[in-house]
Amino acid sequence: MFRLFVLALGATLAFAQSPSSGCGKSLPEGQELGGFYNATVNNRRFVIFIPPDYTISEPAPLIVSYHGGSRSPENQIDLDLFTDSKYNTDKMVVYPEGTSLSNCQASNTCAERYWSVDPRITADDVAFTQSILDIVQDTYCLDTNRFYASGKSQGGGVIGSIFACTPALSNAFAAFAPVSGAFYTPNVSPCESPFMFPIPCNPGRTNIPIIEFHGGQDDVISYNGSARRTGACLPNIPWWVESWAVRDGLGMTGETRQLADDTPNTTITQYGVQQQKGLVTHVFDAVIKHVWPSKSTNSDNNGVVAEFDATPIIIDFFDAHTLA
Ligand SMILES: *[C@@H]1O[C@H](CO)[C@@H](O)[C@H](O)[C@H]1NC(C)=O
Ligand SMILES: *[C@@H]1O[C@H](CO)[C@@H](O)[C@H](O)[C@H]1NC(C)=O
Ligand SMILES: CC(=O)N[C@H]1CO[C@H](CO)[C@@H](O)[C@@H]1O
């Protein structure tokens, strides 16, 4: 009786952590704190970052970050700054690699990698992600209540319109943060303005935290939607976000304000009230293009920087949401 009580109290004090089976296992040989390591599963590559504060006894949160279409895990590492000690020292970060087009040899594009939100890609990225989660949680000491997904462009599309819309993965990740998301939607007819069509989605729960960032001058994935590629349609972005708010039971109306005093062109819209306030959140910068928003030069922005850094906002959003 007494022991049960102590266990229950211990669990409460630990903020409902859920230690993975990797807890207590020493780091794989040759791996060090702060290091990056290639791994593969079913012939597909992913990169693992061991956070500097990692220990085998304290379950770490996990961020899985998906690169943009044609890009690579290495590009995403440079862009998202989730491995920069300025922003993160406690979270493990994993960078999966997409697959190439089936006819890539003809077009000489086999080094370019894409995600299955792109209608040309048939790889099972849900199974790939599930395999990665299985491996890392059995190898490292992770808190399975704090797994998070982020991604740029197609990487944002695959997490926001496929993984968050799939029972198993919507339950595996505690929150999702697509950036300049390419939310290709199949079988939309007609695919035409105002691009506010029903988004097919079958999540495993009704309280999924989502934060989406988008630029008003995005010339790749237009803010107002477009018919960019045969076989799939791109939704109006505010409509896509609003669809998530409705799916989460928060209603269609959000509260919009300027993000910060020094961001005249950037607004944040939060859906939900009281404890659920911001469960669905949208950050809109009217001036930026198809970028990972950053006040510094990065490989996306050609030196035309944003009014804010997306990275710390995403990390704060993740920290605010856990499973259970
Ligand atoms: C992982 O593999 C890629 C491609 O094979 C290579 O470019 C990269 O340097 C490797 N990264 C590490 C951390 O070994
Ligand atoms: C999107 O459409 C709205 C009107 O619905 C318009 O005011 C705005 O300029 C458009 N934005 C872009 C980036 O085209
Ligand atoms: C595109 C846009 O809205 N630009 C505005 C950004 O903010 C400055 C300062 O308020 C305005 O002068 C720009 O017009």
Automatic annotation (TrEMBL):
Its EC number is 3.1.1.73. It catalyses: feruloyl-polysaccharide + H2O = ferulate + polysaccharide. One of its GO terms (molecular function) is feruloyl esterase activity. The keyword Ribonucleoprotein does not apply. It is an enzyme of class 3 (hydrolase). Residues 1-16 form the signal peptide. The keyword Lipid metabolism does not apply. Transmembrane segments: none annotated. Keywords: Carbohydrate metabolism, Hydrolase, Polysaccharide degradation, Secreted, Signal, Xylan degradation. InterPro entries: AB_hydrolase_fold (IPR029058), FaeB/C/D (IPR043595). GO terms for cellular component: extracellular region. GO terms for biological process: xylan catabolic process. PANTHER family: FERULOYL ESTERASE C-RELATED, PTHR38050. This is feruloyl esterase. It comes from Stachybotrys elegans.
